[in-house]
Amino acid sequence: MRPYRITLMSLLVLVAVAAAVLLLSLGWGASQDLRRQGRGDPQAALRRQEQELAQTAAEHKEWQRLPEDLRRFRERTIITLDGFARFRRDLNLCLDDNNLRAPNISFNFQQRQNGLQPVAMQFSLNGPYRSLKKFIYDMERKPQMAFIRSVDMSASGDAVNAHFSMEAYLGD
Known about the structure:
The chain is α+β, with helices and mostly antiparallel strands. It has two domains: 2-75; 81-170, 2-Layer Sandwich (Alpha-Beta Plaits), CATH 3.30.70.60. It is 60% helix and 24% strand. It has three helices and five strands, in the order αβαββαββ. Strands 1, 2, 3, 4 and 5 form a five-stranded mixed sheet that branches. A hairpin with a 7-residue loop joins strand 2 (106-109) and strand 3. The longest helix has 76 residues, at 2-77. The N and C termini lie far apart (111 Å).
């Protein structure tokens, strides 16, 4: 029995030595990974800072363009006091192009708010549904800042009666 014990003990010692070597190699590999990460970390941090700087620079350029973009927006969309007469003519032309008549368009100039003066418009139209639909489409495509607030429609035979409530904004 003794030879079996010696063989068993030697196998156990070999297993223990192999386990110790395995643990040492895992520890050595982990330390090598940490050392590599330690060397790469400043480079990664520098790359992150460069990306953040590029993103901040792009946002800064957008903010610098904002006043010019706002000026162009106001030129294209806000109706000037002088341009209101042109807007009124465009409204009448749009009505004529669609064979619609609005004999009584009421304008209600409201109090200025933040440099803009709202103008409420109300009028009634009578005509084919197709013409009313095209009128709405044509008005929505206009570049000026005029909004159709509501349209109340009722049918009578082939014609449609529509009451429009619109709003435009006049600027300086």
